[in-house]
Amino acid sequence: MSDVDWLEQTTENGVTKREFTLHRGARPVPGVLWSPERPVAGTPLVLFGHGASGDRHQMPIPWLARRLVADAGFNGLAIDGPVHGRRKVGDGARGAFAVEWRRDGCVDDMLADWAAALDAVQTLDDVGRGPIGYWGLSMGTIFGAPLVAAEPRIGVAVLGLMGVAGPTEAFRERIRSAAAAIRCPVLFLMQLEDELFTREQYLELFDRLASDDKRLHANPGLHPQVPTEELDACVAFLSRHLGGEKREPRRFAFNVSQ
What we know:
The chain is α/β, with parallel strands linked by helices. The chain has helices spanning 61-72, 94-101, 106-122, 139-142, 144-150, 169-181, 199-208, 228-242; strands at residues 2-12, 15-24, 27-36, 45-49, 75-79, 132-136, 154-160, 186-191, 214-219.
């Protein structure tokens, strides 16, 4: 059973932001919910997972959330990862996460955090039970791929900046199994000069995704250098699928016989 303390609430440019702390037993789960100033219950909700150097407000999460709320009327939800944000331990970044990542139960605890937070916001009259998507890169995929695989409510995902890698063989096998269980549409982002994950690790994870609709967007640059236009692509991808537009993309067929 989880209790929620609703904290600061602000509204700006038609977007309401609500900070909260969910108490899952003795485990606090800090989060933030973005929603339209004039909400309609049952509209889509996008979950946002941050990287291993930030928190629930790490860019570009607030930008994406406000864009989806203001332009599409969606809701957005982000929670702090373990040892990050208001759950900070040590440096609250990659150093602390490297230790946490090795802990037995690390992924299972975070998946339970997400499930509890999702349950809590879906009980709100102004959110309700609409379609759900997921966006999360780097650490957002470390936890996000197992979450998308395990959570039947998620119908579309943006993943990436991650490959089949990790501190233990048990985790590497888990990420492989998670990818093989993901069947919803996926947009997967890759950085070609990533200093943290090799191209082979990236491509193994992408290839293992079981979705019939998976797209790989690869760009030059280091791990954090995702081009701004890819964020536009994320918004378009999530909006199209969560907004009910399921048609197949138009394809140009080359005449290879000439």
